[in-house]
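Q: Could you predict the 3D structure of Tetratricopeptide repeat protein?
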Amino acid sequence: MSRVRRLLPLLGCVLLGCVLLTLYAPGGVLRRDEPPPGPVAWSPYELAGSIEAAQNRLRGQPDDAAVWASLGNLYLEQARRTADAAYYDKAQGAFERSLRLPTADGEPYIDAVIGMGALSNAEHDFAGAVRWGERARKAAPYRWPLYGVLTDAYLELGRYDRAEATLRSMLNGHPDLASFTRAARLEQLRGRTEPARRLLHRACEIAGDPAEYAFCQWQLGELAWSNGDTRGALTAHSQALAADPGHVPSRVGKARAEAALGHTDQALRDYASAVARSPSFVVEYGELLEHLGDRAGARRQYAVFTAQHKLLAANGVADDLAVGTFEANHGDPESAVRHLRTEWKRRQSVEVADALGWALHRAGRHAEAAAYAARAAKLGGLNAVFAYHRGEIEHALGHTSGACAHLTRALSINPHFSPAGVSRARALLADTA
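A: Sure. Here are the predicted structure tokens for Tetratricopeptide repeat protein:
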């Protein structure tokens, strides 16, 4: 999930952005300092109660395909907000149970089909998500959530023309929070920050419950962070946690912003709280510890990551992007290249192109790395990490002016993109001054 301009036509994106902003922007352009609406009347969200209610109903009606599908989606939501992959197995079990049960028309319950597509996306089986999504579209073309499944899958596969066309169908048929947040992502990928922000504000305004509001605020926080607005990121992530204290990705986003602002003790507490709930963020936590001089603490976090992914691999679940990225930065670059070449065969996205380019650079293959780094940049988005990696590669090739340009761009996009990366970029620029 490679993003190139010919796969996401400029005219199509401009028209999509204009239509969305004309029809759905809340009262025109929001000022940068205008506070987004908050969930004043909402109490902290407790998804476990909904899960328990569905389970209780199924004890009395074990052959209710609709409730099994609903339970599967609740498990997926719990996985998203907690970053706990253990819920994926529970979701799969619920969806498969729903699919086995008879329905009035003799066809599988369509929400279970769509749910299996969403689960496939969550488990990085994007080709599988396309198969489930297309199966749902043939059976029920007006079930709009299936278009979200397909849009996400095509984005991750790097098929941006298909992603845009699918999203347009979703927007035309059912403009809602799910379509606005996906449209915001497409805008962000092209570097169109303001349209992306407006769409996310619109999504926040129509969020139906605290979990949806937290998800939208988390995306606003990530958008702010990626563009160097550290305080904006902290505000958005804090609002997400006010609505849903268990939203782990927002806890990590808050910690990241706190570290950049110099609130180190609070950042460490928030990171520790997040990884206690989910090991998905142990590498990021370890990198901050390493930057602060706690090498032993960093090694403990990296060991957790290694053990987690060995266990996943033993169960047939491989995340080659995560493992390859970790190996490139903290382990064996040759192993990183192998993992990321495998991932590249699976999905040719800008994220994988950047990661493979960086791994090749770390393995000493700078010319090949440069080709992947250039491919990662072709979509036109603003990504400080991509720019930094490209600057490092250009420096290794002896291209001083190109290296300076990319390193300067990285720091201008987000001067806090990575503790180690920022220090290294500044040192390289000082050496070439």
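Q: Anything worth pointing out?
A: The longest helix spans residues 295-314.
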